[in-house]
Design brief:
Oligomer: single chain
Bound molecules: NADPH dihydro-nicotinamide-adenine-dinucleotide phosphate
CATH topology of the largest domain: Dihydrodipicolinate Reductase, domain 2
CATH architecture of the largest domain: 2-Layer Sandwich
CATH class of the largest domain: Alpha Beta
Strand content: 15-25%
Helix content: 25-40%
Shape: globular
Number of strands: 15
Length: 386
């Protein structure tokens, strides 16, 4: 280090620069203060806080709950898991620890009704075998909770009617978990077909939902409400209803149950069914539990087609419109279907609004499922009950 003399030109330049800086920062009496005052304004405006998250109890910790629903809470704005209901306490404890659920809020099927005394639960989500949907929905509603119930809503239309009545009696909301009604691709297909009439008048719909099911599986058990139409054919018929905006008048169906495949001792392997709508639209639907995965629909209009393939998967949906030799694919941003449907229901509960897919939607599908079973059994066209 070297000392510099007062005559050092570098030192002189530095002192001059400092003096200029001091002169320029001299405060005049009229200048506003630069540092904010300590006192806060009485009318301080706060930005809107994020909406309050409603507490959800997940009922049944099977494949769908563990692989899709629990992880989806991370993408929710208005929903959080606050309780679990399971027949397997060890599994439930692990799930509770993984998702920050208080282990004291683990219930089983016997003490489930005690959720009535748990203010941390606003909504219960029924993800049980189909044969248990009605009972656990009704008990949830009677416990004063709002209920989101997986599809199919129940095994019989009579059960669906009891579930709807229980919601009305308890003054609680009931929604059926039709996740595709809460994601943008199927919403866009509805707009294209019904509002924009992008392919002209709809003439026919071809919808297919197939997968290869290995035993054991709730889907293969009659007692648990299994069956291909109940499990996956429902997507085809629900799509035919939401793409046309109509209720089918009549169903014809054929079912196949191979004698040499022990998986199909109780439910059919494959079912093809045709829905006839009052406007004249015909929807050809098929589903199979023993075929390679294929989940798609094509809407045949007077002027072109609307194609969705895959149409019913959790992710990766693709929607295009074909007119003459022009095919245009719609580029939409996908969302987590389960987060979107759960947040929709939380919003409806918070704002006291009816959900987009209430119990009546589930009932309409179950009526078609019942008519399809009768049509397959009798070989006759069966009118869908209203
Ligand atoms: P799983 O068989 O994987 O899970 C069902 C869970 O229900 C079990 O893990 C068990 O949970 C509980 N349960 C209670 N009693 C029984 C019983 N007697 N037999 C079997 N399980 C029982 O089924 P999924 O998760 O695949 O399907 C559950 C529901 O979700 C069905 O209604 C199905 O239609 C629907 N689903 C909907 C989908 C969608 O995209 N919306 C996709 C897949 C299914 P625990 O051990 O905790 O007691």
């Amino acid at each position: 280090m070297t000392d510099r003399s007062p005559d050092d030109p570098t030192r002189r330049a530095f002192l001059a620069a400092g003096a200029t800086l001091l002169a320029s920062s001299a405060v005049n009496a009229d200048d506003p203060p630069l540092a904010p005052p300590d006192k806060q304004p009485p009318d301080l405006k706060l930005p809107d806080p994020p909406p309050k998250k409603l507490g959800w109890a997940v009922v049944g910790l099977g494949k769908l709950a563990l692989e899709e629903v629990m992880p989806a809470f991370a993408a929710c704005r208005q929903s959080r898991p606050t309780a679990l209901v399971s027949g397997h306490p060890d599994k439930a404890k692990r799930v509770a620890a993984a998702y920050g659920v208080d282990p004291k809020k683990i219930y089983d099927y016997g003490n489930y009704d005690r959720i009535a005394d748990d203010p941390a639960i606003d909504i219960v989500y029924i993800i049980l075998p189909n044969s248990m949907h009605a009972e656990y929905t009704v008990r949830g509603l009677r416990a004063g909770k709002h209920v989101l119930c997986e599809k199919p809503m129940a095994v019989t239309a009579a059960e669906c009617e009891q579930m709807i009545a229980a919601g009305k009696d308890a003054k609680r909301k009931l929604m059926v978990a039709y996740r595709l009604r809460y994601e943008p691709f199927n919403q866009a297909a509805i707009e294209l077909c019904r509002k924009e009439r992008a392919v002209g008048a709809i003439r026919t719909i071809a919808a297919s939902n197939c997968q290869d099911v290995t035993a054991p599986n709730i889907r293969l058990s009659k007692a648990l409400g299994g069956g291909p139409v109940e499990d996956i054919g429902i997507y085809c018929l629900n799509a035919a209803r939401y793409l046309t905006g109509e209720e089918p008048a009549e169903v014809t169906a054929v079912a196949h149950r191979p004698k040499d495949d022990p998986r199909f001792r109780e439910v059919p392997e494959s079912v093809a069914f045709t829905l006839r709508f009052p406007s004249g639209v015909i929807a050809n639907c098929d589903c199979s539990f023993a075929a390679a995965e294929s989940r798609r629909y094509r809407v045949h209009g007077a002027d072109g087609f609307v194609d969705m393939d895959p149409a019913f998967s959790y992710r990766g949906l693709r929607l295009s419109v074909l007119k003459g030799d022009r095919k245009s694919e719609l580029k939409l941003t996908e969302v987590n279907h389960f987060a979107a449907e759960m947040d929709h229901f939380s919003e409806c509960v918070a704002a006291d609004r009816p959900p987009r897919t209430p119990g009546e939607e589930g009932l309409a599908d179950v009526r078609v499922i019942e008519a399809t079973a009768e049509a397959a059994r009798t070989g006759r066209a069966v009118a869908v009950k209203r």
